[in-house]
Design goal:
Layout (H helix, E strand, L loop, with lengths): L4 H4 L9 E10 L3 H10 L4 E6 L8 E8 L2 E8 L5 H9 L2 E9 L2 H10 L4 E10 L2 E9 L5 E6 L12 E2 L11 E10 L5 H11 L3 E6 L10 E8 L6 E8 L6 H9 L3 E9 L2 H10 L10 H10 L6 H7 L2 E5 L2 E7 L10 E8 L9 H15 L3
Parallel strand pairs: 1-4, 5-8, 10-13, 14-17
Antiparallel strand pairs: 1-5, 2-3, 2-9, 3-4, 6-7, 7-8, 10-14, 11-12, 12-13, 15-16, 16-17
The protein binds fe (ii) ion.
């Protein structure tokens, strides 16, 4: 069922095209403290700020960066309004998956023509550093794609932001870029959203997993991985499947109150160092039984790393036709069991860790059991 990436990707019709992930914006209750968390625990660096001091009277946004990964944390300054209702409905959550394009007007027109629901008409913003054009469309749940055209801009982030020259800086943990961003959608909605990425965004399906691949004794889910033509943007889409107990996707949908971003995989080229740093700084990861490491090398063969540090840190290993990968998953980073992060190091493999699904989902079920949501 797994088909190597390079064989399928020509099927994508890259009419946009997408150059990469531009930024990921969260709507949160307290952006100042969230920014401190992503700086202190995750090693993101302060880049730009917008708020009362910059003439923005309704909301505050902090922009943080590590490698090519740019996070925007936004909080409302007053009651009511769309940011408040988003937080009320979903808790702290990913609102915007912004995509870097050459032409935000064309990206809007092409996707609207193919059936996308408009969110933001192409809009030019300017300041002394040049101009940015942004446009936006809706995707699953209340999540938004913003197209960002920034080829004529040299400022810190976007017009309206000032460079955030903070004296408090932490060392980064070696995170490089966004590998993939996973959306959870409701029962029987996976194919609808995969069709959206195929027809509206010009993506192609790389891989699909059914409930036989992704189930334990108790719970199940289904997943399809959608990719744009150049492979820089990969959006797996999950939906719950029937099992003996409640699917982790159903738990997410219940707490998120609908479809939304489940996890973001961030790439490193030294997962042992990155995860050691994150654990020392208090980021909690799912734990894997020691028995996993007794047989893992029989399954994946020889790897460059010593097994012992991988075992100590709880890092998982999988292999496909093209190589192997190392991956680990945090516990939810919010009070609601919704968003979590994956740290991934690819050593040739372009797949998503199918061989680890069972160990991973059993680890998630142990957490669900403690939450009383299994
Ligand atoms: Fe993932």
């Amino acid at each position: 069922m797994t088909t190597p990436l390079k064989k399928l990707i020509p099927q994508a019709e890259d009419f946009l095209p997408l150059l990469g992930t531009d930024y990921i914006e969260f709507y949160v209750g307290n952006a100042k403290q969230a920014a401190y968390y992503y700086q202190t625990a995750w090693g993101f660096q302060p880049i730009a700020y917008s708020g009362l001091e910059t003439g923005q009277k309704h909301q505050t946004s902090y922009v943080l960066q590590q490698g090519k990964i740019r996070l925007v944390l936004t909080s409302p300054l007053h009651p009511d309004g769309p940011i408040n209702s988003h937080i009320n409905s979903h808790g702290d959550a990913v609102k915007i998956l912004a995509l870097w394009v050459d032409d935000a007007t064309k990206s809007f027109e092409e996707t609207i023509k193919r059936g996308a629901k408009p969110y933001l008409q192409p809009t030019m913003e300017k300041d002394e550093n040049g101009t940015v054009i942004r446009s936006g469309i809706h995707t699953y749940g209340e999540t938004i794609h913003i197209f960002v055209e920034r080829k004529n801009y040299s400022g810190a982030f976007l017009p309206g932001y000032k460079a955030w020259d903070k004296t408090y800086k932490t060392t980064d943990v070696g995170l490089k870029y966004v590998d993939h961003i996973v959306g959870n959608v409701g029962w029987n909605e996976m194919n609808e959203w995969c069709d959206f990425y195929t027809h509206v965004m010009g993506f192609a399906q790389l891989v699909s997993f059914d409930d036989k691949d992704i189930s334990t004794d108790y719970t199940a889910l289904m997943s399809k991985v959608m990719s744009n033509g150049n492979g820089r943007i990969k959006f797996p889409i999950n939906e719950p499947a029937i099992g003996r107990k409640k699917s982790q996707i159903e738990e997410y949908i219940d707490f998120y109150n609908g479809a939304g971003v489940q996890h973001m995989a961030l790439a490193t080229d030294n997962i042992i160092e990155t995860v050691s740093q994150l654990q020392q700084r208090g980021v909690d990861f799912l734990t894997i039984p020691a028995s996993y490491y007794e047989t893992v090398l029989d399954r994946v063969g020889t790897i460059d790393e010593d097994l012992e540090p991988l075992k100590e840190l709880g890092i998982l290993i999988d292999r496909d036709e093209e190589g192997y990968l190392l991956q680990i998953f945090t516990k939810p980073v919010l009070d609601r069991p919704t968003l979590f992060f994956e740290i991934i190091q690819r050593k040739g493999a372009q797949s998503f860790g199918k061989g680890n699904f069972k160990a991973l989902f059993e680890a998630i079920e142990r957490e669900q059991e403690q939450r009383g949501t299994l």
